[in-house]
Amino acid sequence: MLPAVFIGLLFAYSLVSARLAKTVVTAPIVFTLAGLGMFFIAQPADGRMHAGAFLTLAEIGLVLLLFTDASRTDLRILRNIRELPARLLSVGMLLTILLGALAAKLVFPQLSWWEAGILSAILAPTDAGLGQIIVNSPLVPMRVRQALNVEAGLNDGLSVPFLLFFIAMAGAGEGGAGFARFIGEQLGLGALVGAGIGLTGGWLLNAARRAQWMAESFLQLAVVALPVFCLLFSEPLGASPFIAAFVAGLFVQVRFKHAGKHSVEFTEEWGQIFNLAVFFLFGMIIARESGGFAIAPIIYALLSLTVVRMLPVAVSLIGSGLDKTTIAFMGWFGPRGLASIVLGLVYLEQEKHLPGEQVTRHAVMATVLLSILAHGLSAKPGIRLLAREN
Fold first, then answer.
1. Structural domains in the chain?
2. What are 357-378's pLDDT values in tens digits?
């Protein structure tokens, strides 16, 4: 029943998508709320889904999105604005994790410090999909768009070593040596896998097209196979598939500059289905857990989307030359979505059964739901305000 309902909703949304695009109602809002309503209509038994299957679906959607965003990132512009992403991904991200853990310990005193770190690491990355309206808007300055795009592409992979380290420490596992290994495997190997797949795939695509061996109708599928390769090769190596997918999207342009065009075409036509399916199922999970929600997760969600995100961004951008309005804009538009859902599922897949697992789960769900609504509804007004100020 659920697949039929989802396909029907997808068809109905497609019919009015152009009209809705002129409003503040986004696709994630529609599909999340539809999933939430569907749970109550279909009864709890129809809302069950194996966590592993949900994780796989979410991972596929995320690697496709990250590869697409990276492949359409202008490398020349990126070289000119590299200071901004570096600020956001170093000082900004470390402060976000630290402040997020402090806020978690304040709101949820029953959590250990390591569990507070787990919650903070899950919610540290921003969502490339929910931020697409910002990245695609010509009213937003190019350096701001590209900086937010690169940040969203890399911060989920950067969050993984912190998440796994906090999980290990909360379960009385490995210490500093384990953390160093995680850094090397997740980030270093992820970047190497992505660079190798991007360069090799780009060279093969360019050679096949020049030799006229490849039919134009299969070009799009060949490009999209590259982020899937990242997912398949990263897992056995212990590398981050998200870092690999984003790096592959950057490096494929070196040999095949048209990759961005074809990956965008696929993502807009087919890859979007994965993302919307995740938001639809996420809405159902929210409904299933709604009876156990308290006020504390909502308080933490508000802190996570405001102080925990905006203060570190402001600190990291001191001396960048950006005006206060632009800094506030970049701080606010750090939506939490698909990446946090994936990392939350990664945490549950570890099966550590920590005392704060339910609290963490509810805080993540509350933050992502609030972000879907708040950032979706405020995106267009925020863009217009920024355009007026600049």
1. 2-389 (1.20.1530.20)
2. 999 999 999 999 999 999 999 9
